[in-house]
Amino acid sequence: MRVALVTNIVPPYRIPLFRRLAETPGWRLRIFTSAATEFDRAWNVDSGGLDLTRVRGPSLVRRGRTLHVPLALPLALLRFRPDVVVSGELGPRSWLALLYCLVARVPLVLWVYPSRAGGRRVRGRGLRLRRTLLRHARAVIGMGAQAREALATWGVPKGAIHDAPNAHDAEGLHKALASVDSEAARRGLRAGLGCRDRVALFAGRLIGSKGVIELLDAWDDLAPGLRSAWTLLLLGSGPLEERVRHAARTHARGEIVHVRAVPESEVAAFYAGADLLVLPSLEEPWGLVANEAMACGLPVCGSRLAGCADDLLLEGETGWVFDPRVAADFAAALQRALDCPDRERLGAQARRHAQHFGPDAMADGMRRAIAAAARSGRESRPA
Known about the structure:
The chain has about 375 residues and is of the alpha/beta class. It has helices at about 15-20, 75-80, 90-105, 115-120, 125-135, 145-155, 170-180, 180-190, 210-220, 225, 240-250, 265-275, 290-295, 310, 325-340, 345-355, 360-380; strands at about 1-5, 30-35, 50-55, 60, 65-70, 85-90, 110, 140, 160-165, 200-205, 230-235, 255-260, 275-280, 300-305, 320. Helix content is about 45%, strand content about 15%.
């Protein structure tokens, strides 16, 4: 069976997933991309022999995100002649994929992962377009409980939704951790960066939707005595860098520390040296940093608005959950996390829980959706 997977780029954390799909017996997988990387990324991706095809078309940067319009996609698919087309997201790429599927009479699978908050925000014309596109899909791949909920509210039948919870690059992270001395990493953060005895880590782009401002405000709401042994370490780059640097300058030495974004291979050392991860996102399709941190044994103090919250963040078991829009709720969760005498136990449980969210589980979910769509396509094809 020929399977076409249409996406914007191939990020490094997707390579293990795509390799597993490519190794599926009886499949020939070809991945159609619009670009090598995004404008705000510095990824150096080793595709490892995957069958990749770059599709021509304009790419526009809007509101800090890239919109790809692969106009040559129908022609590229015609040359490959797939039996099933899998398209990521609900934009121009999927409409062009649908055009080919309608003409060639092959099934379309849509791979989308809205969060609960993102799903509720879509209304009017945007919602009508999504529903129209989703109605033409023989199967829809979602990632976790929040995606299932959002897709159901958009009118996707329950039986058409196939769960494939998001997976980090477990192999790459394990390899990176194997080269890190945990004690040396802890000493490095404290001696090299001036961090205090305990470190609460934020890792991500410094943009508004990541909840950076809310995090700084919630930190200030904590009692000074509670913060005195802790450092809030923000690892990342973006438009809010100056705001973060200002916070670092105006607080006591070592209380807030900023480090600009580092290569993916170096992030493991920060996980190894920290005590917990803070994920304060106001909107997040998933939040893959939570997978990575938990796999490294860190409990997560995370936003219930992140798509991963219902699946990964279990209050009092793998971390603490809060609403970043409610200052008191955010500060209370931070207080529970910083004051918890049981963080190591939560971290161990987080590591075990993260093992259920690897590339194998995600690939299995996608295979089920693609197989279901292929069966549906054969049954509806005229004799």
